[in-house]
Amino acid sequence: MTARQRLSVVMIAKNEAELLPDCLASVSWADEIILLDSGSQDNTLEIARQFGAKVYQSSVWPGYGKQRQQAQAHASGDMILMIDADERVTPELRAAIEQVLNAAPQPDKVYSLGRLNLFLGRFMRHSGWYPDRVVRLYPRRYSYSDHQVHESLESGQAQVVPLAGHLQHLTCRDFAAFQRKQLAYAEAWAQQRHQQGKRCSVFSVFSHTLGAFCKTLLLRAGFLDGRQGWLLAVVNAQYTFNKYAALWALGQSASGEKK
């Protein structure tokens, strides 16, 4: 009989005391929980320890991808479940994960989880936000990319297997906080592209912005999500504008320095 594979839940966090209890409760059945903190000023560390998590601290922020790599380096399980403080594993998803753990190891398979994303009081079912599958369960041999934002698992040619159940994602509970986070993501995205030698024109700024709005509202049927769908289309357009406008501005600054 095949021994059950050990599961390590891996998290990165900063000032997540409000969200952390429900998140950790939803994965309390894991073999270990690893939390890498990046300078919390609230009760994040205390709460994590109360739930039995192994807590580590990092004084330097290298970007999301590398931070996840560092967190995973502390894990000892056969399988990794990477989650964030604003996510919760539902009972149905837990059952699907347990099936994977109880089966024979599949080193060339990784597993995608369907996320239910909350936006202003509504779990979205359209707008490109559902099922929003993300690869989060995988053998420890794999790890995340170095990207500062929008990091993803580098799994090579591994087969991606979708799991049943949902990962609830409390994406936007506080609109102002969500906007600040989006702006930070946009700035990091622009910095990364600029460092890679990417540039864009003013036309690209507005064409991408309009494209994001139409894609969310029409192509991804955001209008079926009601008022939140319309608002999300505007938010996605705004985020896209911030990304490309920041990239354009960096290019202008670089050109001015060369003159």
Give a quick rundown of the structure.
With about 260 residues, the protein is of the alpha/beta class. It is built from 7 helices and 11 strands. Strands 1, 2, 3, 4, 5, 6, 7, 8 and 11 form a 9-stranded mixed sheet that branches. Strands 9-10 form a two-stranded antiparallel sheet.
Write the layout of secondary structure elements.
Elements: E1 7-13, H1 20-26, E2 32-37, H2 44-50, E3 54-57, H3 64-72, E4 79-82, E5 87-89, H4 91-102, E6 109-119, E7 122-123, E8 133-139, E9 143-144, E10 153-154, E11 159-172, H5 175-195, H6 202-219, H7 226-258
Parallel strand pairs: 1-2, 1-4, 2-3, 6-11
Antiparallel strand pairs: 4-8, 5-11, 6-7, 6-8, 9-10
Helix pairs in contact: 5-7, 6-7
